[in-house]
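Below is a filled-in request sheet from our internal design queue. Each sheet records the structural input a requester submitted and the sequence that came back. We keep these sheets so that new team members can see what a complete request looks like end to end.

REQUESTER: design group, bay 2
PRIORITY: normal
MODE: inverse folding
CHAIN LENGTH: 250
BACKBONE (tokenized):
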């Protein structure tokens, strides 16, 4: 189906162009991966200037609804909305000093136990299979390499199994920031083993559809993980302070 574009009145042209494209996305006439007409063609169809189209596309890109690629095969493409905008907003607040590491860890402690409760009620067979596969990879590859990748993948899968996109996007944004700020280093084997044990317990609760047990296990797990991340964050800050002091000494 070819999207039907309509001529736009002169007032606030870029905003009206953006609204029309948003409406087409909401109606399903434009799907993720679809390429919009070239800037010049779109301007002709909408009876506006290319400048208005360019501004509208830039606004859509900033909103996470479009991707603009350069080159011969480039153009403006509709994208699947994700948690990138939430992450960018939180990252900005961290940089400005409006959000602390304590705020991030506290948010995770509030969000994840409820996610576990919801997942116990809403997860499907495929969710359980993916979680079990991730635990196996965490034991096999995580222990061998000390990588936290599978640990976080487990938590992202659990968020998806809860079937609440608002909470899922928020948690993914928080996880992204925690990885960026404090958890890029090689993980100790005992830490990975400890996490894997919790993940197995939690999977058992999900399989039994025991929402209360899932919430309780997740709370214990996150409390342990957050204590570990807080210690790591404090050590990183101490090293940075020492480095800055050394750099400033004569």
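RETURNED SEQUENCE:
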């Amino acid at each position: 189906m070819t999207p039907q574009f309509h001529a736009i009145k002169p007032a606030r042209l870029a905003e009206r162009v953006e609204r029309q494209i948003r409406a087409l996305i909401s109606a399903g006439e434009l799907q993720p991966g679809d390429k919009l007409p070239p800037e010049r063609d779109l301007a002709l169809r909408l009876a506006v200037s290319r400048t208005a189209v360019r501004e509208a596309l830039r606004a859509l890109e900033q909103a996470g609804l479009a991707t603009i690629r350069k080159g011969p095969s480039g153009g403006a493409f509709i994208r699947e909305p994700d948690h990138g905008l939430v992450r960018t907003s939180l990252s900005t607040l961290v940089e400005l000093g409006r959000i602390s590491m304590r705020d991030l860890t506290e948010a995770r402690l509030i969000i994840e136990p409820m996610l576990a409760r919801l997942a116990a009620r809403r997860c499907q067979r495929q969710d359980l299979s993916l979680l079990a596969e991730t635990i196996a990879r965490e034991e096999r590859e995580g222990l061998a390499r000390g990588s936290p990748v599978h640990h976080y993948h487990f938590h992202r899968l659990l968020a998806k199994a809860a079937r609440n996109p608002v909470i899922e996007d928020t948690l993914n944004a928080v996880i992204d920031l925690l990885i960026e700020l404090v958890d890029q280093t090689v993980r100790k084997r005992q830490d990975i083993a400890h996490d894997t044990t919790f993940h197995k317990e939690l999977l058992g609760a999900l399989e039994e559809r025991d929402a209360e047990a899932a919430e309780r296990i997740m709370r214990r797990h996150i409390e342990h993980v957050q204590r570990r991340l807080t210690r790591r964050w404090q050590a990183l800050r101490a090293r940075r302070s020492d480095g800055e002091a050394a750099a400033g000494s004569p």
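SHEET NOTES:
- The chain has two domains: 13-78, 84-248.
- The CA atoms of residues 63 and 85 lie 7 Å apart.
FILED BY: M.R.
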